[in-house]
Amino acid sequence: MFLITHLKKSLQILQQSSSAFTGIFFNVYCYIFTLILCFNSVVQAKQIELGEFRSGTVGKYIEYFQETDQKLTLEQAKIHFAKPNKVKQGNNNSISLGIGVKPVWMKFSVSNSDDVQSPYRLAIETPWLDYIDTWLVNDHKISRHIIGGDGIAFEQRPMPYRFYAFEHQFPIGVTDVYIRIESKGPLAVPIHFSNKEEAIKRDISAAYEYGILYGILFALALYNLVLFIFIKQKEYGLYSLYLFGFALNSLSYTGQLHTIFTYNIGPLFQDWLDIFLMITYSIAGLHFARALLKTQQDAPKLDKFVTKITLIVPLAMLAGLLFQQLIFSMALSFLLNTSFVILFIAMGVCALNANRPFAKIFLFSSVTAAVCITISTLAVAGILIPYNDFTFKAIEIGMTFEAFLLAVILAKQFRMAKMDKLVAESYARTDALTGINNRRGFQEATYSAWHSIARTGRDASIVLIDLDSFKQVNDKFGHDAGDTILRTVATCIATTIRKADITARWGGEEFIIFLPETPQDQAAVQAERVRVAIEKLQTYINSTPLTVTASFGVAGSEHNRFNNTELSVNAFEQMVKAADEALYLAKNNGKNRIIISQADGQLTQHLPKTH
Ligand SMILES: Nc1nc2c(ncn2[C@@H]2O[C@H](COP(=O)(O)OP(=O)(O)OP(=O)(O)O)[C@@H](O)[C@H]2O)c(=O)[nH]1
């Protein structure tokens, strides 16, 4: 009956759909569903034999049905279970029935024929189930009724545990276990059954696994929060929010948050908290991806859609909260979470098309996460993927892997930004034409040397250089030829001066040299070396060798005194001024020569022995 109804429904949808894809999808879907149900109809529920069964899920031992109208009593449920055509057989580790559905009744039997003494624990490992009743029946008599679920105050639950769980010493013979579950959230019911020692081992390994997982996530989140606070780049803040949101969401849906903090606030609060935490990380993740991949520039339509969906869905969910429409808001949160995965991939593809850095690694990480999320979703829904610990946790493994790769991207981005900054700073200090310092670079480079000289009472000098009749060079050979000469002269000066000296392009065809630890007479000697080097320099323009000369103005201290006062940092400006005056005289006195500004303000020509 169920099969026919289901097939009818599928066919109706198939007819309504005009797309070939949907048609193929539904054909495959119907086929798989038919196979599953045919398989179900021939399999009979087995008993759990305690002597053989130490630990595992019991989905395949279960018979179940859903209430239709009013709440059934145990006796009515027993009558229902007695009619084989009214019950279904579990075919998967977990029974999954959907969101906001009618309460479910389940039954399985435990046989203790070997007189196993160890108590067994039954745990229903979905923490959001609101009301759970279990009856243990021996010889048609109820031996125990265990009430729980997150709708029950924490102290009244059978065990102080994040799931509904209880332990029981099963007597010799057969015990029928009847379970009724009522919940507003998704009715996914993975029942784990194991002897007490195995259950404790399982708890310990879960504690380690979650400890590692949350340790990584919180450490990464905190680190990025600190980066955001100090660097003020929004990617770090959004990434941190994404990680915090994901970790809290995971803590919430695995029941751990509610066990520790919100255990007595009631199931409704927990359901609402779960779905809002779920969308928090999706929204933060999407905005992080927008900022990281510059989606606004590369894919403006997609970017607008992402911005809208991350605004409209939470607002609609808030409206749902206002009117207490949990199912409506829950469906929206699932919709956003599913879109989140798809949108992440779409944004990655756009970034890849736009050749954005990190697009490949981003896409790889989001596809991996999507695959893991799909594995967990299908496993919980009982479709194609078997439910087990690994498939249930695949979502966390995938998301942690993705978080790690995104952290790698951010680290690389940080490094790139630093390199860009260094390059930009270096450009700001460098003359674009000649590649030597510009004025700013010169001032930065001489700053500390100048302070140290002023402090320790040593000498320093300045040499100003101006190419002679450079206008004529430009006029005769063109501006490009002039540029080439400026470049070769700059290189010539930079390679002729001593290591500690600092040079720069001071203006159009003007250069400067700072000579630390150098009194002015020695500076004049160094200037002469440069003058000769420039004079000898041949620059080839269209295979024709060109030569230029330059005039020099030198100003410097003698015995730590300049202009009759002790050398101080302020002397720099005065020294440049004095060198400029000397240079002016060198030009007026016939060019290609060196004039020294004397300490007493006199200007004299430097006449080297070879001149
Ligand atoms: N090619 C080129 N020429 C430049 C650059 N900067 C300044 N100049 C030229 O340098 C020339 C300087 O001319 P003037 O100031 O008259 O000086 P001058 O011709 O060298 O004459 P004196 O300084 O008296 O020897 C001008 O023609 C400027 O256009 C540059 O970056 N590239």
Explain what the structure shows.
- There is one protein chain.
- With 611 residues, the chain is α+β, with helices and mostly antiparallel strands.
- The chain has 4 domains: 1-42; 46-196, Immunoglobulin-like; 233-421, no CATH class; 439-605, Alpha-Beta Plaits (2-Layer Sandwich), CATH 3.30.70.270.
- It is 54% helix and 19% strand.
- The protein has 17 helices and 22 strands.
- The chain has helices spanning 2-16, 20-42, 74-81, 196-231, 234-253, 256-260, 267-293, 295-298, 300-322, 326-353, 359-381, 389-429, 439-456, 470-477, 479-496, 520-536, 571-588; strands spanning 48-49, 55-57, 63-66, 88-89, 94-99, 104-112, 120-124, 131-138, 141-148, 164-168, 173-182, 186-195, 460-467, 502-505, 510-516, 539-541, 544-546, 550-556, 561-562, 565-566, 594-597, 603-605.
- Strands 1, 3, 4, 6, 8, 9 and 11 form a 7-stranded mixed sheet that branches. A 6-stranded mixed sheet has the order 14-15-13-18-21-22, with helices on both faces. Strands 2, 5, 7, 10 and 12 form a 5-stranded antiparallel sheet that branches.
- A hairpin with a 5-residue loop joins strand 21 and strand 22 (603-605).
- Helix 7 (267-293) packs antiparallel against helix 9 (300-322) and helix 7 runs parallel beside helix 10 (326-353).
- The chain is rod-shaped and about 125 Å long.
- Mean pLDDT is 85; it is low at 1-43.
- The chain binds guanosine-5'-triphosphate.
- It catalyses: 2 GTP = 3',3'-c-di-GMP + 2 diphosphate.
- Its cofactor is Mg(2+).
- Pfam families: 7TMR-DISM_7TM, 7TMR-DISMED2, GGDEF.
- This is diguanylate cyclase.
- Residues 458-599 form the GGDEF domain.
